[in-house]
Amino acid sequence: MAGDLAKGPGAGKTAVDAPEWRVSPGLLPYPDAVAAMEARVAAIRAGTARELVWLVEHPPLYTAGTSADPAELLDPDRFPVFKTGRGGRFTYHGPGQRVAYLLLDLERRGRDLRCHVHRLEEWVIRTLARLGVRGERRAERIGVWVVLPDGREAKIAAVGVRVRHWVTYHGLALNVAPELGHFAGIVPCGLAAWPVTSLAALGLSVSLAEVDRHLRATFAEVFDGTAPDPEGPPPASTGRPAFADTPLSRPVRAPC
After folding, report:
1. Residues 6 or more apart from 203 whose CB is under 8 A from it?
2. Is the dihedral of CA 119, 11, 249, 234 positive or negative?
C-alpha cells in the first residue's frame, strides 16, 4: 500500500495541481494507513506526488496521540492500541466513522498550523450544515461540537494532525454511525466532562457515501478553492508495515 499511495497519479506535476481524492473500501488496518501516509508525505515533499485527500474507515481501535495520558486508557484490552505521532490524546476509530486524512503542502498553502486545524474544523462544519446539523467550535476544545436537545454539548468530530517538512498528515474523524459504546474504553480526547455523539444518534440515517459527497462539495470552499481531482483506484492492502519517524517530524499540539 505505501508504495502505491506514494506514487499516486500526477506525480511530477506543478504545485498548483489539485489534490488527489481517494476513498478506500472496507476496513483499512491502521498501520497500513500510517505507512502509506509516511510514504506519500515524503513523495509530496520530493515533488513526485500530488497532495492527497484520503477517506478511509478503520476496524475498531484506539490511537494514542503525543499528549496521551495512560490513565485515560480505561480498558486497554478491549481493542488494539496504536501509538501515533499526531497531536492530541486518546481517540477511537471504527466502522461507521469517516476518517479523512489530508496530506497537504503548507509550503504553498501557508505555514500556519493553527489555520490548517481551523480549516479542518470548518470543513466539517460546512459538511454538517449540508445535512441540516449545526456544528460549532468551542474555545480550548479542538474539534467540532453539537448542542444536544437536552442542552448538553457533545463532540461529533475529532481533529488530530501532524506536519513533516510542512506537509500535513493525519486529519479528522467524523462520527457518522459508529458504535458509541466503543468510546467507553478511553477518555475521548481527554475530555471526560463531554460525551461524544454521531449523526445516527442525532436521528440522521446517512451513508458514508453521502457524507463523502458533501465533504467533496465543501472542500473547495475551505481549502483555497482547490477542488480534489477524481479518485484513482484505491490503494491495495499489504502486510503490517513498521512505523516511521524522523527528528524533523513534529505534531501539532492540540487537545485532540
Report:
1. none
2. positive
